[in-house]
Amino acid sequence: MTEEAPPDTKRRQLSAANTKHQNVRRITDLPSGILAHAASFLTDPSKALFAIALDKNSAVLPNERSSAIVGNQWDVLDFGGIEKGLAEKLSDSDIEKVLQCIDAVNNVKRLKLANCTKITGVGLEPLRGSLVIEQIDLSLVGEHQSPVLDDLSPPISCDHVLPIFDSIIASEGCLLKYIQFPSVWRNEPSAESDFHAFLGRYNQMRGDRGETSCLECNQSLPERRWIETFTFSADYGTHWNTCYCCLKH
After folding, report:
1. What does the DSSP 8-state code read for residue 239?
2. Neighbouring-strand partners of residue 78
3. For FRET with 78, which of 31, 46, 50, 87 sits at 20 to 30 Å CA-CA?
4. What is the pLDDT of residue 14?
5. How far from each other are the two terminal CA atoms of the chain, in whole angstroms?
6. Of 148, 132, 130, nearest to 140 (Cα)?
């Protein structure tokens, strides 16, 4: 038969339990470890959104709680991992805060903005000058989906995006290997457009890296054909010679 605890002990236990209960009035009162454990069941983009929702300043000034929630493994940031309806509601401000929260300029190698159809591109500013980014998918659709959006005129803008891309490809040590552009940028090719001029600068950057050989046949790949620039081609603005999945040639 179990002995009953003395009255004084009972009172101390009840008092401690009540104090703990009273101290947790909001989710932000929970220990960082508990929040991090809960976040471990979320997709990667949702972890960052969760951390920002708990503390909006965590995007600019990461703290113990936000760092525990988001972790430090951010080679890939794929918004295709969250519900389409949520991704479609994300603004440039949301994207910018996520990129800041995870220190994307120093961590993210692959960025895929699937279904982020509301953005203009200004939210990509935290990627300016990145020396680690290897792939940027701005098609705004998920993998194996048609590149043609229901909204034929999404707000994604060359004016906002291309200066950021230029800062990346102009950086010594740039590792960028693959860009997938929105179909709306490719649908009306013009050799006089800012987009066309950027394709030329990108191809020049890739060509300056020196000769590249095919992994299968060991033959040298043709120069200046990383992205198609012939305006009459159906492949205008799309990548040649580089695999979307493994980024190998």
Report:
1. B
2. 112
3. 31
4. 44
5. 74
6. 148
Structural tokens at position 116: 């982020």
- Residue 124 DSSP label: G
Element (H, E) at 178: strand 178-180
| Pair of tokens at residue 239 | 């990548």
- Nearest alpha carbon to residue 141 among 161, 113, 162, 118: 113
pLDDT digits (tens, 9 = 90+) for 29-58: 888 899 999 999 999 999 999 999 988 766
Tell me the one-letter amino acid at 247.
L
Report which residue type is found at 229: T
Instruction: Please give the mean pLDDT across all residues of the chain.
Output: 85
Cβ atoms of 121 and 161 within 8 Å: the answer is yes
**Average pLDDT for 217-224:** 61
Q: Widest CA span of the chain, in angstroms?
A: 90
Please, are residues 182 and 238 in contact by the beta-carbon 8 Å criterion? no
For tokens 């040639």, name the residue: 249
Question: What are the residues whose beta carbons fall under 8 Å from the beta carbon of 196, sequence distance 6 or more?
Answer: 189, 190, 229, 231
DSSP codes joined into one string, 89-110: T--HHHHHHHHHHTTHHHH-SE
Locate tokens 């430090």: which residue? 72
Distances (CA, A) of 119 to 16, 96, 97: 49, 10, 13
